[in-house]
Design a protein that fits this description.
The protein is an alpha+beta fold. The chain contains ten helices and 15 strands. Helix 2 packs across helix 4.
Amino acid sequence: MKSPVLSLAILFCTFHIASAQAIQEKNLQKHITFLASDKLKGRATGTESEQKAAAYIAKQFKKIGLEHRGDQGDYYHHFHFKKSSDPHGNVDEKAPQIDSRNVVGYIDNQAEYTIVIGGHYDHLGLGYDHNSLDANPEGKIHNGADDNASGTAGVIELARYFAKNGVRESHNFLFLCFSGEELGLLGSKKYTETPTIDLSKVSFMVNLDMIGRLNEEKRIMVGGVGTAPDFVPTVNSLKGNLTVKQDSAGIGPSDHTSFYLKNIPVLFFFTGQHSDYHKPSDDTEKVNFSGEKQVLDFAIRIIEALDKQPKLTFQETKSKPEDTPRFKVTLGIMPDYTWEGEGVHVDGVTEGKPAFKAGVKKGDIITGLGEFKVKNIQDYMKALAAFKKGDSTTVKVNRENTDKDLPVTFQ
């Protein structure tokens, strides 16, 4: 019979090891609180505050024990660019060069193939880059707690998990925190153009962008599931109590796109947009830390399952540019992209825009726009493309099981 003291010691040791392996909410809160603090002034690409954020991430990678995989013998992958000089994206070739950096860490398991886990750490800074949805953004700190301090914290925690779990996986791991995403996926594009590992040896890439707002219904979107045949059955078998909306496309408005365009399978984790998106109000106190832990636990289940598989087979997903509507007006709503029902679920309404003036409210479900029926986001965009500034119509919404026709005029 073991002594009670020894048994307790063994129990404590076992608990400590298991605890060390788990995703820690306190770590997520620590990382997001720092990255989204006012002293980092919104982490705009190419600024001193971006450098401070990069140094913080590099410090965490070093503390975890990751090998550096930068381009100059450190954790940094450097790149430069010239910033667009107007809201339409035109670049002044005489503009000064801006220097920036991605942060890169590596777990070498002496394997042939590698899994990439990434997320961008930059945000909108003080609102001077024409990306803010605030009515008067300039000079206001856009802290970007969800977008994308949440994803950056997730990358750091997954790095700690895979470095400290006591298991030697069948793949190597590359952890990437990108800058320049808000200016057009610049950091991930530059990395895939001048990588510090052999991209032909990458099995798949996981992108974490805005994973800090898991709602009460536990809805999450996983994009890129069509880029490898293993993704859909793996996601379906491991989603647990999460409500998972799946999108097959490899191209989307985040950094996984850069890897997909290099014929690498990708998965994109995203808990949905909200009324604080690209506004100064995207703050730390609104992050659902326990929800983010659930998202990361889900990601771990998928990664560990796929780690046991051979290198994934890349599949090109259908892209039909001719079906992409072009519209000259905006209604001024934030769609809930994780919505599983019919219609477009309104997750936010921008003050002063046509929807706001028409009386559309958060929580409404848009089912029609003029003569167009709206069953999904694609219907909504096609309907919107039929209108021009000055046109008046009605927007049909379902509010608490009651249909309403609201008059709207496009500005």
